[in-house]
């Protein structure tokens, strides 16, 4: 696991130079398309327009006026952001240079660095087989280094009960008291039932759901006989990847899993961003920003 061999300081220096610096150039320093925290101070009412967020419809006024009205709020200058992090065994899947946990650390470091250098606060909730720790939200470069340090120290689990993402989401709901920007970062390989707490987070906070995946989870490479191991249960299976029928069945099963996951996000009223372990992080974040800008029009 390459990231674990580095120090927090080196990781932050690398992210500053290779990611944040490039993002500054491509986004011209305007990160509002990524972070536009909703304030808590009521400003006024106006008639609903297409593409407005229906969560801000004032139903009492709408009933009186017989026309949809939405509440407008004064935007907070300061953002409090929380990272709800899935560190279960399936997040350790990957290849030598493209582990899901490595990408998680880089993504969290990037977002935390961008936020804290503008005076915002960041905190985190770690989940592996249970809620492992909660890091209170604070600002500053030292807070970013603490997040990275704690992530690097988080042990890799060889075996664990099957992931229950609901525990992480409910832990986040209990820990985060004030309206915040919430990142949920996971591969969403989990027991069912997580849609409801994710929907509650989306209703109470500004949510960015990031679904991490490795390309090998979608397409089985033709590399000959291998032993496949379930990262959650440890169950092993000998297979010959030369077999085209096996690769076809694997691809079909992956497509079915993708369909079920898309349906689960729809039930939660959440549109997640997908991030591959081999994707350029700068291009991915710029893509996120463009999608969020389009959704707010």
Structure description:
The protein has 297 residues and is of the alpha/beta class. The chain folds into two domains: 2-34 and 78-212 and 274-295, 3-Layer(aba) Sandwich (Rossmann fold), CATH 3.40.50; 41-74, no CATH class. The chain contains eight helices and twelve strands. The strands form four sheets. A six-stranded mixed sheet has the order 7-6-3-8-9-12, with helices on both faces. Strands 1-2 form a two-stranded antiparallel ribbon.
- As residue ranges, the low-confidence spans are 37-42
Biggest sheet overview: 6 strands, mixed
Q: In angstroms, what separates the terminal alpha carbons?
A: 41 Å
Tell me the CATH topology of the largest domain: Rossmann fold
What is the CA-atom radius of gyration, in angstroms? 20 Å
What number is the mean pLDDT? 82
The number of domains: 2
Based on helices, strands and strand pairing, what is the structural class? Answer: alpha/beta
* Number of extended strands: 12
Going across the biggest sheet, name each strand in turn. Answer: 7-6-3-8-9-12
Net shape:
globular
What is the CATH architecture term of the largest domain?
A: 3-Layer(aba) Sandwich
List the total number of helices. Answer: 8
What are the secondary-structure elements, in order, as H or E? Answer: HEHEEEEHEEHHEHEEEHEH
Q: Which percent bin holds the helix content?
A: 25-40%
């Amino acid at each position: 696991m390459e990231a674990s061999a580095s120090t927090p300081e080196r990781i932050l220096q690398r992210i500053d130079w290779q990611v944040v610096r490039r993002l500054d150039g491509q986004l011209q320093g305007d990160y509002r398309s990524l972070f536009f925290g909703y304030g808590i101070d009521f400003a006024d009412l106006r008639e609903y327009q297409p593409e407005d967020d229906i969560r801000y419809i004032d139903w009492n006024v709408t009933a009186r006026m017989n026309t949809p009205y939405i509440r407008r709020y004064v935007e907070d200058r300061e953002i409090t952001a929380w990272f709800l992090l899935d560190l279960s065994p399936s997040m350790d899947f990957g290849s030598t240079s493209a582990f899901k946990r490595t990408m998680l650390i880089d993504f969290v470091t990037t977002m935390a660095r961008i936020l804290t250098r503008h005076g915002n606060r960041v905190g985190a909730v770690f989940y592996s087989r249970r809620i492992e720790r909660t890091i209170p939200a604070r600002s500053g470069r030292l807070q970013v280094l603490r997040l990275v340090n704690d992530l690097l120290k988080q042990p890799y689990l060889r075996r664990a009960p099957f992931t229950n993402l609901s525990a992480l989401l409910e832990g986040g709901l209990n820990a985060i008291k004030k309206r915040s920007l919430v990142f949920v970062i996971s591969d969403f390989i989990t027991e069912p039932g997580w849609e409801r707490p994710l929907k509650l987070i989306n209703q109470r906070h500004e949510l960015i759901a990031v679904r991490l995946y490795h390309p090998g989870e979608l397409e089985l490479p033709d590399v000959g006989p291998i032993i496949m191991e379930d990262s959650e249960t440890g169950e092993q299976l000998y297979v010959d990847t030369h077999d085209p029928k096996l690769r076809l069945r694997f691809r079909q099963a992956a497509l079915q899993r993708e369909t079920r996951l898309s349906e689960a996000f729809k039930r939660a009223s959440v549109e997640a961003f997908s991030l591959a372990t081999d994707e350029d992080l700068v291009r991915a974040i710029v893509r996120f920003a463009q999608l969020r800008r389009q959704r707010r029009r």
